[in-house]
């Protein structure tokens, strides 16, 4: 109990949770732990990333529940999945202080992550540990996550690792976002532009 109290106190001192919400968050962590069969220490570690990502109180707990369920379904490390889910939600501007809205957005994103794993040849752990190299860049380029997931699934289905697929995809997005003169000339000859 002392370790749990100490660990959850870091949510206030280090991750931005308000002291007035701490009791709610502690109860929520224990509830998610019980409902998903995940150790409270693992749930607390995941909540730290969620809180650090700017999702607090009931909204943060809703993301925690979705991350814990997704990690369990995908047989992946909750710490990695929670970081990936929060990072991807933040990259795509899918955050809300309303818990119901946040649950819906987190569930939509987790379902897309699960669909990507299912369509490709990778495990959730592989996708989750490599997605941060492409998600913020793709979101900034206004590329929908479904397209990103589809590209990663296609590349991994052809034998590429998730890490290589995300790195190659991010390099492609960078190259098309800021083409060199050779690429510009080639695209112009085909009647295209980098924007197209």
Compact summary:
By secondary structure, the protein is mainly α.
Radius of gyration: 19 Å
- Describe the sheet with the most strands: none
Bin the helical content: over 70%
Work out the strand percent: under 5%
Mean model confidence by pLDDT: 92
- Give the uncertain stretches in residue-range form: none
User: What does the overall shape look like?
Assistant: elongated
Number of strands: 0
| Class inferred from helices and paired strands | mainly alpha
How would you describe this structure to a colleague?
By secondary structure, the protein is mainly α. The protein is built from eleven helices and no strands. Helix 3 (40-52) runs parallel beside helix 5, helix 4 packs across helix 5 and helix 9 crosses helix 10 (162-177). The protein is elongated, with a radius of gyration of 19 Å. The model has no long low-confidence stretch (mean pLDDT 92).
Outline the fold blueprint.
Blueprint: H1 2-13, H2 22-36, H3 40-52, H4 57-74, H5 78-91, H6 99-119, H7 124-130, H8 135-140, H9 145-157, H10 162-177, H11 181-189
Helix pairs in contact: 1-3, 2-3, 2-4, 3-4, 3-5, 4-5, 4-6, 5-6, 5-7, 6-9, 7-10, 9-10
State the main characteristics.
single chain, 196 residues, mainly alpha
